[in-house]
Write a structure and sequence with these properties.
Blueprint: H1 4-23, E1 49-53, H2 64-78, E2 81-85, H3 93-96, E3 101-105, H4 114-125, E4 129-133, H5 144-150, E5 154-156, E6 161-167, E7 181-186, E8 190-191, E9 200-206, E10 220-227, E11 230-235, H6 247-260
Parallel strand pairs: 1-2, 1-3, 3-4, 4-11
Antiparallel strand pairs: 5-8, 6-7, 6-9, 9-10, 10-11
Helix pairs in contact: 1-2, 1-6
Length: 263
């Protein structure tokens, strides 16, 4: 039986191999999840530090450790420090100001109390960055400010299946290395409402390509916007453990982190 340390090492090795595909030029025939030769979202500014927060008060995704390992490896390869926690008491002013961005890694439910919420609002209003991954939209339903920050709330999803993702904006740092049409397997969320009008939509889902979607012709999956003094990026992708060894997904996630962490 493998130990937690061995499993963590295995995750990091798998992510490191995928990162090699992200960072290095690829020659010959490229697979469907290969990053185009020479394409990379880039590196972080000196001194960049990211907090990964993965507390769950509802459903817990088995892929959370894979996501944390992936961000640690991305940080090591692209010049930013990473701390990970599930402790909400870390959300206080003096601690949060050490970080360029906070990643909500598949959080669920009510994860912060009122004092911690207030500290996080002050952090964003002071120019901090936010990255929401997958079920970050299944979080803090009774906190309207957070709903505006993340941009939408989860409604439902069908079974995990293959679908067509349309990349609407390939000029943004989180989508510059993606194909115009991205066929992948994941858990596809319907949202209660569309993102706010100021959100720049990066990815949409073709509901004709899978079974069970209910949002219609316009089904957003990823977006970014500035909100209340800070930067917010969200991607619905990332339910599966396999996402965190997919070079295209890693380039997408990396780009969102780098954008949100800019000051």
């Amino acid at each position: 039986m493998s130990t937690p340390r061995q499993r963590s090492s295995s995750r990091c090795l798998a992510v490191a191999f995928a990162l090699a595909l992200v960072a290095l030029p690829l020659y010959g025939q490229q697979g469907s999840n290969a990053v185009p030769a020479g394409c990379s979202p880039g590196d972080a500014a000196p001194g960049t530090s990211v907090l990964v927060f993965s507390r769950t008060a509802g459903f817990r995704h088995a892929s959370i450790p894979d996501g944390i390992a992936a961000i640690r490896t991305l940080g090591a390869a692209h010049g930013f420090l990473v701390e990970a926690t599930e402790d909400p008491t870390k959300f206080y002013d003096e601690n949060l100001k050490r970080f360029s961005a906070v990643v909500f890694m598949s959080t669920t439910g009510d994860v912060l109390d009122s004092a911690q919420q207030a500290a996080f609002q002050r952090y964003i209003r002071g120019g901090g960055g936010y990255v929401g991954v997958h079920s970050a939209t299944d979080t803090e339903y009774d906190w309207p400010w957070y709903g505006q920050l993340v941009g939408a709330y989860f409604k439902r999803h069908p079974q995990i299946q293959d679908a067509r993702v349309d990349v609407r904006d390939r000029s943004f740092i989180a989508t510059k290395c993606l194909p115009a049409v991205w066929n992948r397997r994941d858990e596809w969320y319907d949202f209660r409402l569309e993102p706010p009008p100021d959100a720049k939509i990066l990815l949409t889902l073709d509901e004709k390509s899978y079974q069970g979607g209910t949002m219609g012709a316009f089904h957003p999956l990823s977006w970014y916007h500035t909100y209340d003094g800070g930067r917010a990026f969200y991607t619905e992708l990332g339910h599966t453990a396999e996402s965190y060894t997919d070079p295209l997904y890693l380039s997408h996630l990396l780009g969102g982190i780098l954008w949100a962490a800019r000051r």
